[in-house]
Amino acid sequence: MLTTLAGRYQRDLYESVLPFWMKHSVDREHGGFFTCLDRDGTLYDDRKYVWLNGRQVWMLSKLYNTVEKREDWIEAARLGAGFLRRHGRDPQGRVYFALQRDGTPAAYQRKPYGAVFMMLGLLEYSKATGDTAARTEAEELFWRIREWIADPRLMGRLAFPGPKVSQLADIMVVTSMALELAAADPGDARYPEILGECIDAALRHCEPNREILIENVGADGKFLTDTPEGRLFSPGHAVEVCWFLLHALRYRPDAARQEKVLRILENSMLFGWDEDHGGLHYFLDIQGRPPLQLEAPMKLWWPHTEALYSLILAYTLTGESKWLQWLERTHDYTYRTFPDPEYGEWFGYCDREGKITHSLKGNNYKGCFHVPRALWMCIDAIERYGSGN
Amino acid sequence: MLTTLAGRYQRDLYESVLPFWMKHSVDREHGGFFTCLDRDGTLYDDRKYVWLNGRQVWMLSKLYNTVEKREDWIEAARLGAGFLRRHGRDPQGRVYFALQRDGTPAAYQRKPYGAVFMMLGLLEYSKATGDTAARTEAEELFWRIREWIADPRLMGRLAFPGPKVSQLADIMVVTSMALELAAADPGDARYPEILGECIDAALRHCEPNREILIENVGADGKFLTDTPEGRLFSPGHAVEVCWFLLHALRYRPDAARQEKVLRILENSMLFGWDEDHGGLHYFLDIQGRPPLQLEAPMKLWWPHTEALYSLILAYTLTGESKWLQWLERTHDYTYRTFPDPEYGEWFGYCDREGKITHSLKGNNYKGCFHVPRALWMCIDAIERYGSGN
Prior knowledge:
- Chain A is mostly helical.
- Chain A has one domain (2-46, 131-387): Glycosyltransferase, CATH 1.50.10.
- Helix content of chain A is 53%, strand content 8%.
- The A-B interface holds A 36, 38, 44-47, 100, 104-108, 156, 158, 160-162, 226-228, 285, 289-292, 294-298, 349, 351-352, 357-360, 363-364 and B 36, 38, 44-47, 100, 104-108, 156, 158, 160-162, 226-228, 285, 289-292, 294-298, 349, 351-352, 357-360, 363-364.
């Protein structure tokens, strides 16, 4: 089964997904990447979203670094990295959310994610090219992002009375950056240290009754289940964090914690799966209350890409057949719902029953990232497992 | 047909909708109104949303002023008005978006709508009670809101390069406030003047090919159809603005403009109606591009309440049978989709095909407002029409 899947993912990645982005997203005039692309690649908004530009620089550089030294990939990455370095930050060093096509500032988000993916893109790009200035900027960004997360007022957010909240998304992005820095600089002990803190912090999001990861808990570890935020469960997010934690545990080996993460993964799939219509719910309230998000009942592509890789990783770590059953179920749902064999790439959004609701292939939240990253990681994990590594 | 509808709306308003809110939303301990109520009225979030609190004060005071001097209505309005006046504004006079149950500040929105509905609530409450301080605060707020809309930086929004944008929502809320002030103070010529400016401004949102109102145009009158915002059509919003304009035209009579507004209403229904599944779409792109909003394909309750009243108003103004046909179609869809005869009030959200997606009756955007306002206005318009007024 795994070999068949690897072949399928290989064809999808190199014949459908990457060609779509390479053909339609690269702006050879101003640099950077368009992501608001309709089904057939038609551009419907020429703004450039910093976080998606950073993600695409990361993805193309990563493929160049790990799969094949393709000139077209690194040339596109160079157009993206240059655009981000010229236009991505304001005079105080804060990172914009959106830019006009030519790089004119268009919006802030007051969240750290633009900076996170600019950092990841520049770091991976520097590995590919030896561009030390990009590497230095990436490291500088990492330490600033840690400050911004610790004190969101530095991003222009307003502070209100009430308990300080720990957000799972913040822990995940710090984990993702520290993993890449730890790999880039194996001699620096700070990054494994931070990964240890991230594992601790993420496990404080484990809701004890169901043993799943929820989005928001008090910074003091208390659960905030009186509020919709404190009851919010995003199954895709939970399973994505699980694979980040399994990677982080390579730097802080701990068999009991690995067991726990695997139980959380299984419980997040169980509680997150829609038994009526298949697929992972987007948002759920752990007490069955109505979520405030209107899109809660929809199905999105990215929880499924993250589940595919997490399940393959869990199987390669344990050899337990239950993971293959979950993988088959998730793969079948995903491939019957999202990919578009006609124009390439995947659709991103459908209703609860699996009918596509948006014709787009990219927008301000979907770019050249979750689909190619998951396919590349799945192929890589299956190949390593097959070769005994 | 109209008489039958009026009877239906009476029963719905007084036996189902108002009892739901009077029973579940009033906080007799701290004042103010809860709105995050699940299907049966269970509270799932005890924060108080300033704009929805203002709307409920307005609605209850309006019913007290126009329908019946019911003690329970004005007593609840008093609890809401007092809560807003104690807690709704910061020391600089800006209006919060959300408060904790006890009035502790919880969030700003950097938009004017909290202030708008606080203003409308206090004004109507002052008419009911003769509370001149509430009246003074409402008028002060009106003029400040005009400044905030003219320069959103005063609300903490950041300015970016590019064309200044006129938002249909801003025009609509100024129209709504000026209408109430014009009625409250018939001797003041400033309000009819402002209503004239609002009519001009709203008609600059008329997209010439389809003759519908779109959400965003350049402040210089240019269309911004290169961007998703500049192509955005919200059918419910368009039909809501139409009835506001028809009311505003009472102060600035102009037969040609009334004709135009009625054509816009008809075209907005035509272009906004989902011929496959019935009901009004939530968001459409006028060029058929994918909207950025994930909730675009859903159906929401409030476009349908606004359509019901606009269509009745159009019929009572013209006597043309086409409006009754649209009304029948809209009424049938609305009443087969949203009301909840079991626990009262209406559901608010369903998927494109009309299946309810959220069990809630209220949240941070849905409160005691669109349903009772539309039912009250429909009943009133039908009664006036029947009596020849």
